[in-house]
Amino acid sequence: MAEKAGQFPFTRGIYPNMYKDRLWTMRQYAGFTSAEESNQRYRYLLSQGVSGLSVAFDLPTQIGYDSDHPMATGEVGKVGVPVSSIRDMDRLFKDIPPDQVSTSMTINATAATLLAIYIVSAQKKGISADKLRGTVQNDILKEYIARGTYIYPPEASMRLVTDVFAFCADHVPKWNTISISGYHIREAGSTAAQELAFTLANGITYVQAALDKGLKVDVFGKRLSFFFNAHNDFLTEVAKFRAARRLWAKIMKERFGATDEKAMLCRFHTQTGGSTLTAQQVDNNVVRTTIQALSAVLGGTQSLHTNAFDEALALPTDHSAKLALRTQQVIAHESGVTHFVDPLGGSEVIEELTSELEDEARSIIDEMDNMGGAISAIESGWVQGEIAKSAYEYQQSVDSKNRKIVGMNSFEEDGEPDAELQEINQSSVKDQIDGVLALKAERDNGEVQTKLDTLQSVTQSDDNLMPTIIDCIRAECTLGEVADVLRSVFGEFKQT
User: Which of 79, 88, 400, 442 makes a 20 to 30 Å CA pair with 394?
Assistant: First the structure.
């Protein structure tokens, strides 16, 4: 093959030597009912060889409610860690140096606020924002498509996204300001080609919004990152990752006029497919995750999370989380695949699948362009409808047993799953709520109100919101209070 890794359009990898020089970041996703429990898991994972942390937040945090809010009842700490204030973040990262660990935060509607809390928490430890490394997901468009944790209408949400772009370009230069996510699109039932197309179409929208704000493509383009799913169709998944790099490089160069090759790179994190894991015969999920993780590595990922085998049943235990990490470590250090750059490149099957997926994704993107772009296609419900059709067709194939799922619709066994499961600690929920109430009683509420009033006036202007949100966090305003101010100006989005 004439094309080499590290050269446009980067089909074979974004670096000339790929993993021969440096392995991917092994990043395990975790968040429990309390900041203390989550901190314990993070320090455990770091001791086991994890090279980057990934924070899962609970649902109230994701949609801008403090743990003591009536809307949070029954959801505090269920699917991740609750972070309502700077005090929660301080406890979450106790004894973890944020200038030495890369931190990914899976947060979207409240991304600007969580990033502000992380910055202030680091500054309290004497670490300036320009030393921080990590990623904030900050991908609101896929929330309207596939996930539902939006708060504000699309236009207001896009302002928050681009405010983070602009602020980080000046103050947090090592931070990835968005992780444009296909993961949740695939989890909602899309095909591999749709995952590719809808993700990159969203990426096009973010780039155009940043350009419209006067930002330079060769500057902010370097801090864009992506987040893809890895499913079971091994060769298709390897080809999908290669096609993503090639297509994005062409989009950035040809459509947006990027001249710096670093702004053309499709750098991406991969997570193995949660929706592929079964509650039946959970040990089989170890095999599924291994296949999926290997596809991500052979596809050239920069970062990887491997799901635990018990995730169809509960949050991972220490045992299942460690086994998920060990899966990556065995691939990295024992399989031999890291000794070669793009080991499957040149395979007739892989090259053909790569081109097919690129062509199919480009065709879908063209169709969305004709509708007026991703936002128009989302607001009309077209994207959601296409995913729903694919999900229905997939489920039909499973129900009819044309598609075999081992242990679920074939090779079944009787009996309940035999696994030690993680449980929600209800006393931790009470402690979290009590902590928020104590904060609101102990702080200087006059200063809090002054900062929130300032935030309201800045929100009504065109100024960047990040500095004012940071000022609010320093005064111990809560995440929910910041979100409420933005709600009062922006309104809330309701799906029709």
Answer: 79
* DSSP character at residue 20: G
Give the mean pLDDT of the chain.
95
Total domains in the fold of the chain: 1
- Read off the pTM: 0.93
Looking from the CA of 285 toward its CB, the CA atoms found within 13 Å total: 27
- Distance from the Cα of residue 69 to its chain's centroid: 26
C-alpha distances out from residue 294 to 113, 447, 464, Å: 35, 52, 41
Domain extent, residue 152, equals: 18-399
- Summarised one tens digit per residue, pLDDT across range 461-475 is 999 999 999 999 999
Which residues, 6+ apart, have CB-to-CB distance to 461 below 8 Å?
A: none
Asked if residue 81 belongs to a domain, the reply is: yes
Tens digit of each residue's pLDDT (9 = 90 or more) over 26-44: 988 888 889 999 999 999 9
- Apex 306 CA angle, 389 and 405, nearest 5: 45
Residue 340 within a domain: yes
Q: CA–CA distance from 305 to each of 24, 259, 269, 324, 333 (Å)?
A: 10, 32, 8, 8, 16
* Spatial CB neighbours of 472, under 8 Å, sequence gap ≥ 6: 116, 448, 451, 452, 455, 481, 482
> Which pLDDT value is given to residue 419?
63
Give a yes or no: residue 334 inside a domain. Answer: yes
Q: pLDDT band for 422, please (50, 70, 90 cuts).
A: low
Please name the amino acid found at residue 201.
A
Task: Give the pair of three-digit tokens for residue 426.
Answer: 């209800």
Lookup: tokens for 154: 């699309």
CA–CA dist 403, 141 (Å, integer): 31
| 322 within domain boundaries | yes
Distance CA 4, CA 22 (A): 17
So what's the pLDDT on residue 2? 74
Cβ partners under 8 Å of residue 318, min gap 6: 41, 44
Tell me the pairing of strands 25-30 and 52-56: parallel
pLDDT for position 315: 81
